[in-house]
Amino acid sequence: MMPPPNVTGSLHIGHALTFTIQDILTRYYRLQGRDVLWQPGMDHAGIATQMVVERQLDAQGISRHDLGREKFIDKVWEWKEQSGGMIFKQLRRLGASADWSRQRFTMDDGLCTAVRKAFVRMYKDGLIYQDKRLVNWDPKLHTSISDLEVVTKERKGHLWHIKYPIEGEKNSYIIVATTRPETMLGDTGVAVHPEDERYKHLIGKNVVLPLTNRLIPIVGDEHADPETGTGAVKITPAHDFNDFEVGKRHNLPMLNIMDENAHLNDTDTVPEKYRGLFRDKARKVIVEDLEALGLLDKITDHVSQVPYGDRSDVVVEPMLMDQWYVDAQTLAKPAIKAIEDGDTKFVPANWEKTYFQWMRNIQPWCISRQLWWGHRIPVWHGPDGTCFCEETDEAVFTAAEKHYGKTVELVQDNDVLDTWFSSGLWSFSTLGWPDKTPELGRYYPTSVLVTGFDIIFFWVARMMMMSMHFMNDENGNGLVPFKDIYIHALVRDEKGQKMSKSKGNVIDPLILCDKYGADSVRFTLAAMAAQGRDIALGESRVEGYRNFATKLWNATRFCELNGCTYDAGFDLNTATHPVNQWVISEFVKMQEAVKNGIEQYKFNEAANALYHFAWGIFCDWYIELTKPILAGNDEALATETKKVTSTILLEMLKCLSPIMPFISDEIARNLLNDNEFSFMTENWFDVRKLSTKIDKYNTAGRAINWLVETVTAIRSMRAEKNLGGKPIPLQIKPSTDEAAAWAREFEPLLRSLARVEEFTIMAGSDEFAPDAIQLVVSDATLGVPLGSVIDVAAEKARLTREMEKTQKEIDSLSGRLANENFVSKAPEHVVNGYKQQLDDLKAAKAKLDEAFETVSKIA
């Protein structure tokens, strides 16, 4: 199931990661011959979409209220058809191969039917009900929002210490400390800890609420922390979530003192002087009045955690109001058990803890929103307040007529459903539920859900609950919506910081696609997607994988220039030359690593196996090792090598195609001279075809790997000793008969690939030359006498200069990191960067010291 992007959305780097991983799985399992459905869709995004359209109307000097509900909704649909869904086009640019012909929208006709059916059934089962509870009210958007849509920000403010006079005791007060003096008008109690010796004797007495002269009780409650503030807490049940619970425990009245705009309302609770004032203005006036009455004890500086609406960016007001709720606690029980029993598993498994923590402490789910765009709550209210809820409008009016004995006027509830209610049905409603469609029978439960950790609560948990309630097996037991839940990490910037517009470090995946190609972006994300580890994404990494793509093009060009034409009838079992057998055996290992990596959701391991084989083995070593064969006189061997080359290239591209689909298809089309070819319709290469030869190929592979390791060791030594292309003498002391045979067999290749002039195979008792550098490789030790190759004096002078330069850099960095003032003030990523540089310099210095010591031994 594609996590449905918002209709207002555009592709960001988190989306790019999510959809790349889903596309890799989709393409891979298609290659495996599986019947794969990647179900696409889009969310109507209630608040976000309404905001977009209202802004457009505001620019024309029109409000939604000027239009009325129906005409406004027509405007939203008009916007949706013209401008909504841009992200689908962007996903296609990224290469997403969903079944676009089946795309769904959370407000299309079918899903509207599903939503209404689900609501009605849950309402009649008592799982949906109306209640007066505290909600997060957004005074800008004029709707309730969920806890998950509230962003807490640290804000510098004050703590006002206010004297509440104790009833009947002259000049006796209890002092409460509050960050919100304006809410005191709604106080209905003062709480103290029942064991607090300062206040125990006051429990049961009343205080006179300043500015209102209402009497409110002092109650004993553990919510009051003796160590915080004054130890006495004002209780405003209708405007604070903790106070709401205290109020319920002590049966305190719940007085709402604000309207939908966060102005003090005109109820009798609010003194006339303060009515109509915005909460910030009311605070100022109330504090002034308290000071004038001598009831303001003191004001201290205080840092508060203030809730803001994540879309409106205004302070959220806790408000007591009637809303619609789902009995989430009941729904959560089977969804918890499903994870406990392993019917569904999280990957990585540690996300189970997050899921359990949320689900085991779940509160009633507020599903009503005071918006116009969305699924309108299918409840009609009669003249006496009776509610009617049926699957069709006709059934509603029939039920009302039966109830009242006559036709009466009904009014539909004004609220719409929380967007996550319709998204909670996504795993089965998109497959045709409530009808028993073939798709529902075939594809439910789904195999895997891929998403970010930030919507485990928003979406994953709600899908688990809703799906298991409505989808049952033949015994009536709830069926999980998916077997695996793969939670991918967060994409951060290259310094490990979270991306944000304010920091200016946001990476736009579409810009990266323009600069480096979608394949490079996809491969970068896959290569860095290690389980449980955030991705530190830098543009240089994407550029590096663009170079990888270029390497593939160059390898293809080499094949074309050398006549490596693909032969579909060629059997890899017929390969005779060790180099060809080696590349086949290495391909089999790579393919197995890719298979395991993708199937175990270790996408980085799959990508890195591909990179190592394609660049290191095929493009570098295999092509280099086959050049003498292709240029030689053995026509049969050359033909075999061309066919192995083209076959392995094509099968390698097939393995690569789930991650880099564009370049894989394009190269394959060139290789096959077929403009219509695509790996989308191909089958995974069956390794079992090589079962009769694979042991032999692995033996050949060990020999060539020894050759590669030996040449690599000599080339690294050349670079370290600054030998350039000078011919060198080489002494080889094998430790096994097999290695001795390899040394004899590969002497011509060692001479050409490692630029060896004098070549000696030594017996076990032979001693290396005194001036020989010794290198250890598998089953052999190499000796490279340097006396005749380098100018000892010049090399010592060069190494001395490098050592001195490196030591100066070490001293400079060490001094900076020893400066406590610098370390305490510098950003963490800067300090960590310097530490890494210091480690690298020390390692480089150790190598220089070793090289100097080696050269010094040469006579």
Task: Give the key terms.
Isoleucyl-tRNA Synthetase, domain 2, 859 residues, four-stranded mixed sheet, 28 helices, four-stranded antiparallel sheet, Helix Hairpins, Isoleucyl-tRNA Synthetase, Domain 1, alpha/beta, 46% helix, 27 strands, globular
Can you walk through the features of this model?
By secondary structure, the chain is α/β, with parallel strands linked by helices. Among the domains are: 143-318, Valyl/Leucyl/Isoleucyl-tRNA synthetase, editing domain (Isoleucyl-tRNA Synthetase, domain 2, Alpha-Beta Complex); 513-692, Isoleucyl-tRNA Synthetase, Domain 1, CATH 1.10.730; 728-858, Valyl-tRNA synthetase, C-terminal domain (Helix Hairpins), CATH 1.10.287. Helix 16 packs across helix 17 (518-527). The chain is globular. The chain starts with 12 loop residues before the first helix and ends with a helix. 39% of the residues are buried.
Number of strands: 27
- Helical/strand content category: alpha/beta
| Average of pLDDT | 93
CATH-assigned homologous superfamily of the domain at 513-692: Isoleucyl-tRNA Synthetase, Domain 1
Model regions low in confidence, pLDDT < 50 over at least 5 residues: none
* CATH fold category name of the domain at 513-692: Isoleucyl-tRNA Synthetase, Domain 1
The fraction of residues assigned to DSSP E strands is: 15-25%
CATH architectural name of the domain at 513-692: Orthogonal Bundle
Taking all Cα atoms into account, the compactness measure Rg is: 36 Å
From the spread of the alpha carbons, the general shape counts as globular
Number of helices: 28
The CATH class of the domain at 513-692 turns out to be: Mainly Alpha
How much helix, percentage-wise, in residues? 40-55%
- Could you give a short account of the major beta sheet? 4 strands, antiparallel
Numbering strands along the chain, what is their spatial order in the largest sheet?
4-3-12-14
Question: What is the terminal separation in angstroms?
Answer: 71 Å
